[in-house]
Design goal:
329 residues; alpha/beta; UDP-galactose 4-epimerase, domain 1; 2 domains; globular
Length: 329
Amino acid sequence: MTTEPTDRPLVAVLGATGFVGSAVLTALAGRDLRLRAVARRPATVPDGARADVEVVTADLTDPDALASAVKDADVVIHTLLCEGGWRAAAEPGGERVNIGVMRDLLDVVANPGRPPLVVYAGAASQVGAPPREPLDGGEPDRPGTVYDEQKLTAERLLLAASGAGRVRGVGLRLPTVYGEGTVPGTADRGVVAAMARRALAGQEITLWHDGTVRRDLVHIADIADAFVAALDHPAELTGRAWLLGAGRGDALGDVFRIVAGHAAARTGAPAVPVVSVPPPAHAPETDFLSVTIDSTPFRSVTGWRPRVALDEGLERTVAALSHAVPHDR
């Protein structure tokens, strides 16, 4: 990495080894800028990177380490999530990661004279039980889980700091994201990947409902492109949260039957069945409600739109996972 003075912006990606963070890092690596990939374990520098990439290993719950990781950054992309994902939000340390890091970040990067751009990976589920379809961003937020409460709190801290002129804050509320990991060792922990792993292992795919519940599914490559688009339109996006989505509700029963078919093509075995099972006691209400997202406002400002078709994205996901899941062929 060059250490000479440069006018190229410095972009710090927090959570650069995570599913979303690594994809954003890869997408930005093709640009002529300086990248600082920050995570608890060393990030992988994307192949063929045009950007100068600095890898920083740090525990971002340590305020001093966080301050060092974002020093002089023109842009901070916050994709950090506590280990264990949404299920770990209520565990010790969940709030410290999901809220505390944002609070500390705003303290160390605040610069009213030259406010940095801070882009935060939120969640469409922060709204709670969807009051209507599609969601368009005008709904009141009534989060129904600890995870969504924490994500909403972090987002509100960011937007309040943005309103005060301390930073330029942009929230991107993500839909159900799926797809293949961008770098080795990085994989999706979401429901699509979980069921693809089951299918590849010859296990039936299970649903907690009759399969008609719909989700707005967007491939990880398209989500990464949305973050890149946000960096290109800070003036128009700053100061609010924006919904991302395909605008298409896909019935999970149909999605998982496609997954089963692609897995069968990989293993040579018959497609596993998709069956309904009783839900566990801890299942949140939102797991049984359909979600479709109208992302027209974000698309109108940035020109972004999802490009990976569902069947292609599911095939890519299964193909990537087939190398990691033991199966006979």
